[in-house]
Give the backbone structure.
Amino acid sequence: MKVSDFDYFLPEELIAQTPLKDRTSSRLLVLDRENKTFEDKHFSDILDYLQPGDCLVRNNTKVIPARLYGKKEDTGVDIEFLLLKRIEGDLWEVMVRPGRRLKPGTKVVFGDGILRAEILDVLEGGNRKVKFEYDGIFNEILDQIGLMPLPPYIKEKLEDKDRYQTVYAKYEGSAAAPTAGLHFTDELLEKIREKGVDIANVTLHVGIGTFRPVKVENVEEHDMHTEHFYIKEEDVQKINNCKKNGGRIIAIGTTSCRVLESIADENGMVKAVEGDTNIFIYPGYKFKCIDNLITNFHLPQSTLIMLVSALAGRDFIMDAYKHAVDEKYRFFSFGDAMFIK
């Protein structure tokens, strides 16, 4: 299976640069796997495709303003940090630019000195192990001086930080948003509950690896990045009860899907657990837990388009993407959505 099998043509003007004013006004392409048909809808129509007894599973991670601009303490040279993950306490793994200037022992200052960092080690892949020093609360300082780590294909400035968060974002730790969830509002979620649909949470902190291109020719040789997740007992019970009662498990986004498929047994049942996953889902994979998926449109040749191809079939997905391009859907993080039913 070649990475090039998952390529498609995308005009640059279809890459959404800003979020729509109303989250639910995005378009929704509904894929019927059984009949191999498409329907062009709006996201608010998702309510029509949910049934009493279903369980929606969402990722309640919260994006931190992980992009920091500072200066080398001794020379004043401009330095950029991207926080990838907390190792422990004030120790972080960060991506840095320019890397060649940041050897162990180098000190960097941010925000006129309210945040300071020392490079401790060079990690595999060129990232750095860094120790931060500050007075006060780290997350409050980040909110003050950090910027949202928008994907590289978004060139426009984000006016409102909250628009790169889901309305149910709770636990800080992501370097990127679980973007399928950006389409939901509190009002829509309440209507979904009123319809008799249960809503369960997982937490997976999305890493910047989600944007890294697949650099091998054969899909099976790709080394998938690792991300940290956990799921609580109350959410496990909702998911397992839905399974036992014949309802559908509908994942909001590929991150929720990857957690569920990482922890499910052969019968699709899950248990409360915390850990790391590097699950790589591509055609040939047999899904154990999820039945349906709400997702955005993904980059050509990415691991995420491979995941949706595993669920719906590569040919059907590529047809759907061609349809979306022809109909001028908006693509990627701030773009439109797809429901694979």
